[in-house]
Design goal:
The structure holds two protein chains of two kinds. By secondary structure, chain A is α/β, with parallel strands linked by helices. Chain A folds into four domains: 184 residues, 3-Layer(aba) Sandwich (Pyruvate-ferredoxin Oxidoreductase, domain 3); 181 residues, Rossmann fold, CATH 3.40.50.970; 82 residues, no CATH class; 109 residues, Rossmann fold (3-Layer(aba) Sandwich). Chain A is built from 19 helices and 23 strands. In chain A, the strands form four sheets. An eight-stranded mixed sheet of chain A has the order 6-5-4-1-3-2-14-7. In chain A, helix 16 packs across helix 19. The longest helix of chain A has 23 residues. The radius of gyration of chain A is 27 Å and the shape is globular. An eight-stranded mixed sheet of chain B has the order 2-1-3-4-6-5-8-7, sandwiched between helices. Classes of the chains: A alpha/beta, B alpha/beta.
Chain lengths: 597, 302
């Protein structure tokens, strides 16, 4: 491990041990030094006592894979050693809490790694520190890490000061002393790893996918957000709630997901930019209302963060199996389904979602996944200047003496939308089938010739929006990246994008020619342009965190193109580059042929 | 838009005819909902609230077709979801007068969860439940307010469930205004609706509105003989305990049924907790954020 410029590190212990604090100290130190970090939390749906770990990839370049083969390991409790020591790379370094983990037990696990027990209590006692809480070991470990990773301790000390200053100078000083104990002890006792982690000194943003989604929504003009808490979507609610007063947003936690989506539709119909966020189970409750938004022609954005399913499934684990759910609803109605591929994309697609929801007067589903939403990553910058507010045919003026037709037939399927409250344009937005004025055609008139004609024309008007989305270029084809002469092309969506990129780097290093197609716009899928991209490829292999290849089924349904080779993972852990490489090799070098039966 | 919940003024009356919608109601002849519609139109007219400053937001059912028959803004939503839509609408457009309407199935059956929270949340809006103790649009099944033993298409041997008491439910959920009107008694109904609309907070008005086609028990005659005006008999609507006592006596058929205002109190309405954000209606806020603010948002993550 000489002169490496990246490292994989893992911190493990019980929930409540302070793993997040250690991760935050380290993450902030690195991002402020201008280093890149990718941090993946493996946690359970328990507040205390569950076994959790945080894995971080740190380096000079953008990190796209939390990787396998841990090089530096920090262990807090006695459950940790047998779980994590086997995952280490030979020659790696293990720091452990000598107060909870026995030296002979951990060292008996394997002999090709180096163990260092930190006896927190005797170290602070020897230093004569008082009023020390046992969770402060995370500050000592941060000191140890700064030393072994060759990071700038001044940056960490600065962050500690910033974080603890409101608790008083004394607390800051105590934490600084504990940090130095870890730093100095490591300097004296631990063999250096020879790492060259030099950042560009431009502080990066260090944030989660859900925070990027929240920020994208706010940048895109969000005024109303409603939710019922559900992992892994809840941190969007947490983030936007912090901005409620400063940015004059209405943020409502409501009684259930039925209420959340209907609140948002009411707000969207009234003329505010509105969104909701939930996971698969909560989204199930919203499905009826999304069709309602389609019929009402109300703009609304629904963020669907996937987790292990079905039912309540595995709340805090990775899965990508909800495309069918996002597509669902009774009857036919236009909509968008967008799947951001990384943190930056979470930001830009969220803002875009609000625009196209208003432009087309439709529901937009932003589909994320557990890993994308809940992992932390450094981002160089988010460019707010790229975000514009486009409201389509929305207006607050009505000067005609004619009766306003909310659902006027139009060439593109989109009707002028006058904001409720405007003098002279009173109308009712309706859930039943209707004519151009919004008069119901569903009850006593249903089946009569004029009502049948209205049904044909109005339904076609709404569905015509899908064609407009494609023709106007608002529904985008997938993007091919990499070597155009590749023998094999991976197909991805969502967070799997980055892991496939990581796998491609590894395979390219071995001389194997592979490239990559990613789908951000899941629906509508422009058929001709999509086929043009797919047909360029010699061999296609999908990579999805599910068992039944939901993206491939969607592609098949929309284009009649069948992808028959797949790499899947549904154990709840996100992919890694290594995992994909291994599975790719299992498929063999020969292209599988489609056999008709 | 001058009528703000936090600053309400009396305005000159409007002709009730101006509230007539384009479409004639498709209710059965003799349906109680005609009376509710006419009383609501008169209430708006007498309060002088211009049509474009009103949103009438319904669920699904016979009575929920009402927004189509009144000349205001409106929404015809999903079964049971009038209140979430109405509250979402109200929060971003709080300068408008928002009235939720629907039937007993909509409000006390499929949507009752939303009702309880709307009552405790206390947004400044009115909710009129046209209560006929039957599912009419689906051709006559039992409803949450059907009497015990009542024979309907889904309970041919008699309703095995006790009816829900919407008044005690509302009083127990922290309501700031609870009233009952009867479609057959328009004079009192118009007055109650006006008070409900002017009330600062969430006002529930349970309104008897007989289904002449499917409910042969709770008929026009039944209500004509059964109801009395509790306020005229001296009930003090600021007295919560007395309101509970009267509501508890409601037996839906064997005794006298109280109409009037059970309870009204002044308490902070939800919008007052968002005073700063709502100093301008949210729909009028400028969208997007400044370059300076963008930097501040990003700085938190550095």
């Amino acid at each position: 491990m000489a002169s490496k410029n990246n490292v994989i590190l893992r911190i493990a212990g019980a929930a409540g041990d302070g793993i997040q604090s250690t991760g935050e100290l380290l993450g902030k130190t690195c991002s402020r030094m201008g280093l890149h970090v990718l941090a993946y939390n493996s946690f359970q749906s328990a507040i205390r006592g569950g076994h959790v770990w945080l894995q971080m990839a740190i380096g000079k370049e953008k990190q796209i894979d939390h990787g396998e083969g841990v090089e530096v390991l920090l262990l807090f409790n006695k459950t940790s050693p047998p779980v994590h020591v086997p995952d280490m790379k030979p020659g790696g370094v293990v720091f452990y809490n000598a107060g909870t983990i026995k030296k002979d037990e951990i060292e008996s696990l394997r002999s090709d790694v180096n163990y260092y027990g930190l006896d927190f209590k005797s170290m602070v006692d020897a230093a004569g520190l008082t009023a020390v809480n046992s969770v402060m070991i995370n500050v000592m470990l941060a000191g140890a890490l700064d030393q072994i990773l060759n990071l700038d301790p001044e940056v960490t000390l600065g962050f500690i000061k910033h974080k603890f200053l409101k608790k008083g100078e004394g607390v800051v000083e105590l934490n600084h002393k504990i940090f130095n104990l870890g730093y100095e002890w490591t300097k004296a006792n631990v063999k250096p790893l020879g790492l060259e982690l030099k950042g560009d000194n431009k502080a990066k943003l260090f944030m989660s996918g859900n925070e990027a989604i929240g920020m994208g929504l706010v940048a895109g003009g969000l005024k109303f957000y409603a939710a019922y808490p559900m992992s892994p979507a809840t941190s969007i609610l947490h983030y936007v709630s912090t901005l409620a007063q400063s940015d004059k947003l209405i943020i409502k936690q409501v009684e259930d997901e039925l209420a959340a989506i209907n609140y948002a539709i009411g707000a969207g119909h009234a003329g505010a930019r509105a969104a909701v966020g939930t996971a698969g189970g909560g989204f199930c409750l919203m499905v009826e209302a999304l069709g309602f938004a389609g019929m009402l022609e109300a703009p609304v954005v629904a963020v669907l963060v996937q987790r292990g399913g079905p039912s309540t499934g595995v709340p805090t684990k990775q899965e990508q199996a909800d495309i069918n759910l996002a597509m669902s609803g009774n009857g036919e109605f236009p909509k968008f389904i967008l799947a951001p591929k990384d943190l930056e994309d979470c930001f830009y697609q969220s803002a875009r979602a609000l625009n196209i929801a208003e432009k087309y007067q439709v529901p937009v589903i932003l589909i994320s996944d557990f890993f994308l939403s809940e992992h932390f990553e450094t981002v160089d910058d988010l460019d707010f200047s790229k975000i514009t507010i486009e409201r389509g045919k929305f207006t607050t003026e009505w000067n005609s003496s004619e009766k306003y037709k909310r659902y006027a037939y139009s060439e593109d399927g989109i009707s002028p939308r006058v904001r409720p409250g405007t003098p002279g344009a009173m109308y009712v937005g309706v859930s039943d089938e209707h004519n151009e004025y919004g008069h119901l055609m569903s009850d006593v008139e249903a089946g009569l010739p004029h009502a049948r004609e209205a049904r044909i024309k109005m339904h076609a008007k709404r569905m015509h929006k899908v064609q407009t989305m494609i023709e106007a270029g608002d529904a985008k084809p997938p993007v091919l990246e990499g070597d155009v002469n590749a023998d094999t092309t991976f197909v991805t969506w969502g967070s799997t994008y980055a892991y496939v990129k990581s796998a491609i780097r590894m395979l390219t290093g071995e001389g194997i020619k592979v490239n990559h197609i990613n789908f951000t716009d899941i629906y509508p899928m422009p058929r001709e342009k999509t086929l043009a991209v797919l047909k360029k490829c010699k061999r296609l292999i999908s990579v999805e965190a599910n068992m039944c290849n939901s993206l491939c089924r969607q592609i098949l349904a929309e284009t009649a193109f069948e992808i028959i080779e797949h790499i899947n993972r549904w154990d709840g852990e996100p992919f890694t580059g290594e995992y994909i490489v291994k599975e790719f090799k299992k498929l063999g070098s020969k292209k599988k042929q489609l056999v008709s039966v | 838009m001058t009528m703000n919940v936090l600053d309400r003024k009396a305005r000159p009356a409007i002709d009730p005819k101006d509230f007539k919608g384009d479409v004639h109601p498709d209710w059965c002849p003799g349906c109680g909902d005609f009376g509710v519609l006419s009383c609501l139109q008169r209430a708006f007219a007498e309060l002088g609230i211009p049509q474009h400053e009103i949103a009438v937001i319904a669920g699904i059912g016979c009575s929920s077709n009402l927004p189509g028959f009144i000349n205001t803004y409106g929404m015809h939503t999903l079964h049971g979801r009038s209140l979430p839509n109405a509250q979402g609408f109200k929060l971003v457009h709080h300068d408008m007068t928002v009235v939720g309407v629907g039937g007993d199935g909509d409000g006390y059956g499929i949507g009752v969860g939303h009702l309880i929270h709307a009552l405790r949340r206390n947004m400044d809006m009115t909710y009129i439940v046209m209560n006929n103790s039957i599912y009419g649009l689906t051709t006559g099944q039992t409803s949450p307010t059907s009497g015990f033993g009542m024979k309907t298409k889904s309970t041919p041997f008699g309703n095995p469930e006790a009816p829900l008491n919407p008044i005690t439910l509302a009083l127990g959920s922290g309501a700031s205004f609870v009233a009952r009107a009867s479609s057959g008694n328009p004079k009192q109904t118009v007055e109650i609706y006006k008070k409900a609309i002017m009330h600062k907070g969430f006002a529930l008005v349970d309104t008897f509105s007989p289904c002449v086609t499917f409910n042969k028990v709770n008929t026009n005659q039944f209500y004509k003989e059964g109801i009395y005006d509790m306020n005229a008999e001296g009930h003090d609507s600021s007295n919560l305990e007395a309101a509970f006592a009267i509501a508890m006596k409601d037996t839906y058929g064997t005794g006298r049924i109280a109409t009037g205002i059970f309870y009204q109190c002044e308490r902070s309405c939800y919008e007052e907790t968002e005073k700063d954000t709502l100093s301008t209606p949210v729909v009028d806020h400028k969208l997007g954020i400044s370059t300076k603010r963008a930097e501040e948002l990003k700085e938190r993550f550095r």
